[in-house]
Amino acid sequence: MKLAAAIIMLVFISSCNLAVWNQNRMTKKMDRNEVHEAFYKNEEHAIHYFEGGAGETVLLIHGFGGDAQITWHKTMIDLSEDYHVIAPDLLWFGQSKSIAKPNLDAQVDAIMDLLKDRKVDKAAIAGISYGGFVTSGLVYKYPKFFTKVCMIDSPGVTYNVSLLDSLCAKQKVASVDEIFVVKNADQLKDLYDLAFFKKTHLPKGIMKDAYELYFDENHLELTALLHTLKKEQSKFLSATGFVFPPTTVFWGDNDVIFPISEGQKLAKFMNADFKLIEKSGHAPNIENYKDFQAKFRNFLETK
Fold first, then answer.
1. Which of 19, 61, 5 is nearest to 206 (CA)?
2. CA–CA distance, 120 with 111 (Å, rounded to integer)
3. Are 237 and 210 in contact (CB under 8 A)?
4. Has this prediction a pTM greater than 0.85?
5. How distant, in Å, are the alpha carbons of 31, 164, 165 from that of 169?
6. Which of 164, 174, 215, 264 shows its CA 20 to 30 Å from the CA of 223?
7. pLDDT one digit per residue (tens) for the chain, 303 residues
8. Which residues pair with 46 in a beta bridge?
9. Strand-pair partners of 252
């Protein structure tokens, strides 16, 4: 009987896309916890998002390494017990699409369109990596809308962009989009190895499944998003005298994409607290979820 069960399991695994299976598993778990997926559409954008809970709104913004669900599913379930949580797929990520020109302004406008549709008039916001740049764009454009700001492994407006050249040299690529705009399963493995402190040895077939599910579209638009950041950053830096809402900067203590010193510099600029998350790389909310979530909740609950 055990041998037969093992054979059946091997046949099942070999015949299904494990990334899709995991996505369906996460969706069902979120549904059981009253966090549901939905779509918002207008003339420019089709936005896929997740929403659940009641109370003060917390907006969660993912980075380049996936979508809202894979980045935030545990956080959404936990926070929905006490907060109204919204986590969109950014434009050209996940299931979100747009005919707008791919830049930071398009991301900012799309998210605000979604929030207005959901009748949200104020929110706390958290953004990780590229999502932190989107968070900066939202906060600068709508400073009175956001009650608290959480930046996670995102150097924001103070980033020394010359460090990207060093990162490219270390990764032996000519341009930053060769790192973050992955175009096959091998490049996805390289990105995961770079982003995560705890190395995983996933079979090549699983990496192929994950690439096909999350990364095989919108390469031109994603490249444009990266190449417009430098100009957009300088625009924000020109806004002198800006007063930020209460802010905390969280950083993985083993992040090799953005050095800790960049996070400390951003925290000083934003007059923010700075908190390290131990034993984690560029995605501390995933690698050390318990520590991150406890600190994040404490920040949200602080008056």
1. 19
2. 11
3. no
4. yes
5. 44, 9, 6
6. 264
7. 444 444 333 333 444 688 899 999 999 999 999 999 999 999 999 999 999 999 999 999 999 988 999 999 999 999 999 999 999 999 999 999 999 999 999 999 999 999 999 999 999 999 999 999 999 999 999 999 999 999 999 998 888 878 888 898 989 999 999 999 999 999 999 999 999 998 878 888 889 999 999 999 999 999 999 988 877 877 777 777 789 999 999 999 999 999 999 999 999 999 999 999 999 999 999 999 999 999 999 999 998
8. 41, 97
9. 277
Q: What gap in Å lies between CA 26 and CA 8, rounded to an integer?
A: 23
Domain boundaries, the chain: 18-301
CATH 3.40.50.1820 fits domain 18-301: yes
- Residue 142 is encoded by which pair of tokens? 């709508």
- Tokens at 266, concatenated: 């951003």
Listed in order, strand segments (DSSP E) in the chain are 35-41, 45-52, 57-61, 84-88, 97-98, 123-128, 146-152, 247-252, 273-277
Tokens 């050390």 found at: 288
